[in-house]
Design a protein that fits this description.
Elements lengths: L2 H15 L3 H12 L3 H8 L3 H8 L9 H19 L7 H10 L13 E3 L5 E3 L17 H14 L4 H11 L4 H12 L2 H11 L12
Antiparallel strand pairs: 1-2
């Protein structure tokens, strides 16, 4: 495969997941103390297949269950980074993700599992990895607001559709396009930063200090 095809696959991964899967999977391994083989086992694919996806020789994982697990692991990583899920809860959540076979949709139409605060899986349509905790259980009001907004958007459209809508709005309504892109299909920490930067998070008035 030539460099142009690899670059195209990595750009597709960036659109679907926010960054090339090589970067994201290495971050998962570092954060959770996993090897690449261990991550492949969690996803239910061979290490060779994971390597192809990470190197951009494949744009995505074809197996829908494995694609859904990848989405769930990526979202768990975001939630642990943002503090919405305690790091100590990650091993349990990873074990549940590894065992999941749940209908729903991720950004590419693959099944996805959403984990509640009690660890109970439930099927939901979502554009990205499923969160490991419910928004109402989160103490940070800005994070809670960002999670609720994301849930509202992603229960009505896939990440691909949200990004397409943002592209249509870019020229005339760039601010609204940014909200869709970041809160509907972006990283959790970026969504929280956007809420805080607006100065209009939960419980704030126009003159309040963020």
């Amino acid at each position: 495969m030539d460099a142009t095809a690899i670059a195209r696959n990595q750009e597709l991964q960036r659109q679907w997941y926010g960054a090339p899967l090589g970067e994201l999977c290495r971050d998962i391994c570092d954060r959770f103390g996993m090897t690449q083989t261990g991550l492949a086992e969690t996803l239910g694919i061979s290490p060779a297949m994971l390597s192809l996806v990470m190197r951009g020789r494949r744009a995505r994982i074809a197996n829908p269950d494995a694609a859904a697990r990848l989405s769930a692991v990526l979202h768990l990583t975001q939630e642990v980074r943002a503090g919405a899920v305690p790091a100590g809860d990650a091993p349990r959540a990873l074990a549940e993700i590894s065992a999941s076979r749940t209908p729903g949709q991720d950004s590419m139409g693959a099944a996805v599992t959403q984990y509640s605060a009690g660890g109970t899986p439930s099927a939901v349509p979502a554009p990205a990895p499923a969160p490991a905790s419910a928004p109402d259980s989160v103490a940070d009001p800005d994070l809670r607001f960002a999670l609720r907004l994301r849930d509202l958007l992603t229960t009505r459209a896939s990440a691909v559709d949200i990004l397409a809508a943002a592209a249509l709005l870019d020229a005339d309504h760039p601010g609204l396009a940014e909200v869709l892109r970041v809160c509907g299909a972006g990283r959790t920490d970026e969504a929280v930063a956007l809420v805080r930067a607006s100065g209009q998070g939960p419980g704030r008035g126009p003159g309040d200090t963020p």
